[in-house]
Amino acid sequence: MDTGVTRRALLGSVGTAAVAAARGSVPTARAQAGGEWPTFAFDAANSGYAPDAQGPTEDVGGNWRVDLGPGVASSPALVNGTVYVGSDDTHLYALDATDGSEQWRFETGDRVTSSPTVVDGTVYVGSNDGSVYAVDAAQGTEEWSVETDGQIAASPTVVDGTLYIGSRDDSVYALDAADGTEKWTFETDNDASATPAVADGTVYVGSEDRRLYALDAADGSEQWRFETPAQITAAPVVSDDGGTVYVGDLAGNLFAIDTESAEADWGVNTGGAIVASPAVDLETVYVGSRSGTLYAFSVAGGDERWSFETGMQIVGSPSVAGSVVYVGSRRGGRRPPPRGR
After folding, report:
1. Which pLDDT does position 34 carry in this prediction?
2. 5-16 pLDDT tens trace
């Protein structure tokens, strides 16, 4: 890594059976001092970028730790002082952000590897039991649920009263966020396990059929598709100006695709499968891969700005708080990460 670069990476383990608060060290729950992180990768574009956030850079230590059973693959959401997170023990939890005390738990029929989204007092989350749930954020009671024909590892994206989510039944769903009524579905040729990104009236979603799709958010009609050399299990990310969508594949390729022409502006190979979404600020796209390296590429042409070797596989999405990049890594040999990151 270029030692002249001011951005830093805070590296921690993932795949643990507990949720930890470490004076801001958990990106999805604590990156914004006094702020919120309401959905996977911060916003509907999956940017992973909170420009006004202030994360820790030194003297990082644990504030609290909560054991949530056999494992936690879900990324926490933070809204109104409450952390919402799924667990492999089949529950969605609401925890007090100050001390980790349990406020409530909601049981599903299988592992909850989907990351929750919190909008207007409702928590939306998928489960490996194949259902999407809407849960009252204050009480932990079910508002509605919709069953699909496959596991749901993707996280819900909610925009303008519509919830968008993919399932391992090869379909992308648009549901009314108020009552779960189906607005439209779109069929792919394999699992749609990646979290959708939504920007400017378009839903971008990857599939294990090796395609990135651009769909009309209103009716689900296909606008275009982009074929990749390998399967897509990581969420796409849309640039701040909406002109570029970034996506990685299991062959280690990262592509920057023009949202108008559906052609790649540039592509690079990271040397390892990309199983988690990039993070993108105004100038740089950050992505990790199973090679164990975190890369920073210029958004303009894909030139490498710097790289950081972790020595372990990167299977989680980086988060950018202000000028600091946070990313987790882990040793190989354990179970594969859930898709849809």
Report:
1. 45
2. 332 333 222 333
The model's pLDDT over 306-331, given as tens digits with 9 standing for 90+, comes to 999 999 999 999 999 988 999 988 76
In sequence order, the 6+-apart residues with CB closer than 8 A to the CB of 330 are: 13, 14, 15, 312, 313, 315
The CA angle 328-331-337, to the nearest 5 degrees, is 65
3-state secondary structure of 30: helix
Gap between the terminal Cα atoms of the chain: 25
Q: Which residues contact 98 (CB under 8 A, 6 or more apart)?
A: 81
34 CB contacts (<8 Å, ≥6 apart)? Answer: none
Which DSSP helix (H) or strand (E) runs through 27?
helix 27-30
CA-to-CA separations, 101 to 23, 76, 77, 191, in angstroms, rounded: 16, 15, 16, 36
User: Domain residue spans in the chain?
Assistant: 9-328
Q: Maximum Cα–Cα distance for the chain, whole Å?
A: 53
Q: How far apart are the C-alpha atoms of 320 and 47, rounded to whole Å?
A: 9
pLDDT digits (tens, 9 = 90+) for 155-195: 999 999 999 999 999 999 999 999 999 999 999 999 999 99
Which residues 6+ apart lie within 8 Å of 150 measured at CB? 130, 167, 168, 169, 170, 171, 191
Q: Which helix (H) or strand (E) holds 53?
A: none
- Structure tokens belonging to residue 95: 């925890």
Name the pairing type of β-strands 237-238 and 102-107: unpaired
Which CATH number among 1.10.340.30, 2.130.10.10, 1.20.810.10, 3.50.50.60 corresponds to the domain 9-328? 2.130.10.10
